[in-house]
């Protein structure tokens, strides 16, 4: 099965991708992993990407697309894959269509994890991280520490990361709405879109996704 996973930040894509890939016996291919692997291995694409990143610039689509193409051509992806974080915009989605067509393949489904914006803000802005090396993660509402501001495991101070602030989260959501959300309509027109609610326990969402994909 060849699947693209989409959804706003805070929808739980990474968690669901890992469970779904395991249940479907296909590799989970995430943009973050692609960048880390190419940079650590010193590939040409990795070196080019790092140059842009070091300069504080966005990595051009052609580099991201090239990394994704190389990964999808690996033997373990011959029977399918789950893409997480790619495509990120319509031009990348169009490039993916071309890549798959040239290889005689096509997508089976695009799974959209749907969650309200206020819930996304609550999920991310409520996170608190231990300052100590363990970096245990808590949530002021969903996984609160026994003592406010104190790590249950080591007694370290809990803090809110800068990129977890409400203002930053809302900015990330705006970027998502502008750049990534249009691919939902793109895939809907192709009849590939499968939308499920990303509310509830992790195992409930996974089962919901598996049931939707079977249909």
Number of helices: 9
Mean pLDDT: 94
Topology order in helix (H) and strand (E) letters: EHEHHHEHEHEEEHHEH
Distance between the termini: 13 Å
* Portion in helices: 40-55%
The major sheet is characterized as: 5 strands, parallel
Shape: globular
What is the quaternary state of this protein? single chain
Mind sketching the topology for me?
Layout: E1 2-6, H1 13-24, E2 28-30, H2 31-41, H3 44-54, H4 61-72, E3 81-84, H5 90-102, E4 109-114, H6 117-125, E5 127-130, E6 137-139, E7 158-159, H7 166-180, H8 182-189, E8 193-197, H9 202-214
Parallel strand pairs: 1-3, 1-4, 2-3, 4-8
Antiparallel strand pairs: 5-6, 5-7
Explained architecture:
By secondary structure, this protein is of the alpha/beta class. The chain has nine helices and eight strands. A five-stranded parallel sheet has the order 2-3-1-4-8, sandwiched between helices. It has a three-stranded antiparallel sheet with strand order 6-5-7. A hairpin with a 6-residue loop joins β5 (127-130) and β6 (137-139).
Features:
215 residues, alpha/beta, 5-stranded parallel β-sheet, 3-stranded antiparallel β-sheet, 8 strands, 15% strand, globular
Short summary:
It contains nine helices and eight strands. The protein is α/β, with parallel strands linked by helices and 215 residues long. The strands form two sheets. The protein has a five-stranded parallel sheet, sandwiched between helices.
